[in-house]
């Protein structure tokens, strides 16, 4: 991917998820361009996204398992 120029498409690339074609649309350069910092930032964003999804799923499961019975005063 790093060797591709903007607009260029890679040869098929095999990963554990299958075969992929990579196209570089454009390159964004950060002001300081620190690749290690950018990698850490990307990991943090992915971690936050996964945490949000896991929290949402956990809350949904709790609601699905909850049982609420509404009774009138005379039903006690």
Low-confidence stretches: none
> From the alpha-carbon coordinates, what is the Rg to the nearest angstrom?
24 Å
Per DSSP, the total helix count is 1
- Could you give the order of strands across the largest sheet? 1-2
For the terminal residues, how far apart are their CA atoms? 69 Å
Q: What's the helix-strand series?
A: EEH
**Strand percent estimate:** 5-15%
- The computed structural class is mainly alpha
Q: Indicate the percent of residues in helices.
A: 40-55%
Shape: elongated
- Mean pLDDT across the residues is 88
The largest β sheet comes out as: 2 strands, antiparallel
Assembly type: single chain
How many beta-strand elements?
2
Any key phrases for this structure?
mainly alpha, 76 residues
Q: What is the gist of this entry?
A:
This protein has 1 helix and 2 strands, in the order E-E-H. The protein has 76 residues and is mainly alpha-helical. The model has no long low-confidence stretch (mean pLDDT 88).
Give an overview of the whole structure.
The chain is mainly alpha-helical. Helices cover 41% and strands 8% of the residues. It has one helix spanning 35-65, and strands at residues 13-15, 18-20. A two-stranded antiparallel ribbon has the order 1-2. The N and C termini lie far apart (69 Å). The mean pLDDT is 88.
């Amino acid at each position: 991917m790093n060797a591709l120029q903007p607009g260029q498409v890679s040869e098929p690339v095999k990963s554990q998820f299958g075969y992929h074609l990579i196209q570089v649309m454009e390159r964004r350069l950060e002001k300081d361009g620190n690749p290690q910092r950018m990698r850490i930032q990307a990991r943090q964003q992915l971690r936050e996204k996964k945490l949000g999804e896991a929290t949402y799923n956990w809350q949904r499961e709790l609601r699905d398992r909850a049982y609420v019975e509404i009774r009138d005063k005379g039903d006690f």
